[in-house]
Each structure stands twice: as C-alpha cells, then as structure tokens.
Amino acid sequence: MPKYLKLRGVASVTLDAKGRMALPSRHREIVAAEAEGRVVVTASPYDSCLYLYPRPVWEPVQEQLDAQPNTDLGARRLQQIMIGQATDLELDKAGRLLLPAKLREWAKLDKKLCVVGMGDKIEIWDDGRWNATMQAAQKGSISAEPGVDEPGAVAEKGSTSAEPGVDEPGAVADFLNRSGLSL
Length: 183
Description:
Blueprint: E1 7-14, E2 20-22, H1 25-35, E3 38-43, E4 50-54, H2 55-66, H3 73-82, E5 87-90, E6 96-98, H4 101-106, E7 112-119, E8 122-126, H5 127-138, H6 153-158, H7 171-179
Antiparallel strand pairs: 1-7, 2-6, 3-4, 3-5, 4-8, 7-8
C-alpha cells in the first residue's frame, strides 16, 4: 500500500442481523483502490477486536508469522490466533463485509461497532468496548479490562488450553516482545 494512502480515523457503523458491516467510505475507497475490495479479517492478539488488512498488506504479515518457529509456544499461539482465524473476504457491491460468527464472538461484537483506521490496517471494535478503552486511556490506564495492562495480555488471558499445564500464561505476549514482529 502506498505510504500516502493511510487508513486513519474512527467511524461508527452498525452490524446487521446477518453479521454484515459497511466499511466507511474513506476506508472503502482505499481498500477498493489498493486491494480491489479484497481483505483479510483476523483476531487481534492484543485486544478483543478484529484486524482488517487489505489483502496486499496481509501477505507480508502472514509471511512473518509463517517464518516463526512453531516449536515456540508463543509463536504457535500467535499463529493460531492470527493465521488460524484469518478469513479472506471481499466487499460486496454495497461496500459491506460479512464477518464470520467465530470472529464476531472473539471480539464480542454487538450491533454498534467502531471502525478504527490504524495506518496499514483497520481495527473493528464493539462500540462499548472501544469507548471504555478510550476512557481508560484518558485516565492513564492502558486497558479498560481489569488486570489487562500489558501488550498481549488479552491474548494471554484467552490462551488457556483445555489441558491443564499445557499453556504457559503470557506465552504470546512474551513471544511478541522477543520477536520484534510488526503486525
């Protein structure tokens, strides 16, 4: 994506009964021009939100993730979160995306959403969670969720295995801190 076409700004959108959301026009124009309306939506390893990448931007992100050793628990969990849940989508003629149910559940999305341009990607948040997170940020806290004040902490919180002792708390956060990956 050319450097002068950055995704930025916050917009409110609505999730319809079928799980579709319309991409705001300023973001839709960039995605249409740079990715022919093709995107990848995946779970965020940091927050309870989704990442939307224009397809050409996603490819190098996935290459970085693929290159990580899946023998490292944190790398494997990160791959499971981001690659395992990644879904290829295409804007319909009305500029809407059908968000898969599993991803809507991951991000705890309700009817009102916030679409946040973050440079090369878009974050999709439940409106209430976004507002609570921003209010907490104004007060100097990193997160609105109790006990979640470290990068990757939501991934840590959600990375427990069905088998006791299989997962290490904080494995994803530790790996992200060590790896220097740019997601």
